[in-house]
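Why does this matter for the project? Reviewers at the last site visit asked to see concrete outputs rather than summary tables. In response, this paragraph embeds two records directly. Each consists of the residue sequence and, immediately after it, the corresponding structure tokens. Nothing has been edited or filtered.
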Amino acid sequence: MALTLTDPPVETTHWTAAMMAKAAGISVSSVQRIWRARGLRPHRVERFKLSNDPQFVEKLRDVVGLYLDPPAHAIVLSVDEKSQIQALDRTQPGLPMKKGRAGTMTHDDKRHGTTTLFAALNVLDGTVIGRNMQRREPAALRGKGARPACFHPPDA
């Protein structure tokens, strides 16, 4: 178990069950059973990046504070933007999958421009509101009143 938390003996990114079995002098299935029982997955790595913004902690507290203790009569939305989504289409139709053969598709596409997707999660009730825009225009996001214009539900 402790050996799993050390670096592997050769220049690899992580322990494999076979390398661990050889190093520990046990079978591969024993290594797999031990890892499974303890929820260990040495081949999985989650990446992260720390902010170098000197005001990061202050900003983080402001944002988390909105979720934990929102102002009275306020709606809290978690907003994200995915810009430059490409609208693509294949230049020719693919062939369907058949027994013994995978489906096919061409390697090239026809481009139909780009769009920007804005989405908001209403933290209170879990509903998602979204809108596509041809360009990223900050003025369109501000809108009139307290809510951003692009997040008005269709019936509003």
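We now turn to the second protein, recorded in exactly the same manner.
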Amino acid sequence: MTGEIEVALTEEFETTVAEQAEDLAVGETGDPAVIDFQQAGEDEAVDIEALVESDGESEVTLGSAKIQHAARERGRARELFAKLTALPQDDPERQRIRGELVELHLPLVEYLARRFRNRGEWLDDLTQVATIGLIKSIDRFDLSRGVEFSTYATPTIVGEIKRHFRDKGWAVRVPRRLQELKLALTKAISDLAQRLGRAPTVAELAAHLQMSEEEVLEGLESANAYSTVSLDAPDSGDEDAPAVAESLGMLDEALEGVEYRESLKPLLERLPPREKRILMLRFFGNMAQSQIATELGISQMHVSRLLARTLTQLREGLTTDE
């Protein structure tokens, strides 16, 4: 168990470091002038603070053009929201403006969805969930509050994505308490990994979260319910390896008879010695009725009647016990 926990903590540490390395990257294209949004959930406008200093005049020109483009989009969004607020609820023009606002803010949706990639969900699915959050934000946004729409929409979209992971992301449904414990452990592992430069131990996690080591182990074990492995998947990393199903045990054909044997034991103990011996010779000794008759010194007809009566008695006993 200790070895499994250490492996789990090490994997969580490596995943955290990889995600942080991705966040530190300038952008997927490598362009230092790529627009960056502020972290979702904070009450700050999602805007361009500054461009990275460039060595060439062309890069500065490109950055200025992007700033102007973003400013025009913000102005266009405010105009559309002003029109949307002025229109009555049953006006068909509302749907067109609403659709234009959705298309205008799809880059924000895609950016926030990419923040949650590589966590067991397809990016296309996360983008759809984030789009639902965007639509909810558009329907609830109040222009009179004087805040940028991106400021209001970002936490709503992120919350929709997190809700998706909470409700649909788990392969096996676990209690809400364990889901929250898993999230707390993930954050604690990230914080301690940065501080210590290695994967934290169970004792360090327990001290950091002010809980017992048993609760930490329970939270780490519950994380195994987040995703499952197909029985048809290779048993190891090699594609030519046998499937997981081939390494599982086979069904014992005699398992079905266990219940019947256990139910018959007390009934057999109550049989007279002669009837019990007839059953033993017939079904366990594989002897014919004529052989049993010779063995007991009685007629074959008598053996047949005793055997039939004994079997009827056992059958009735099983039916009565059930």
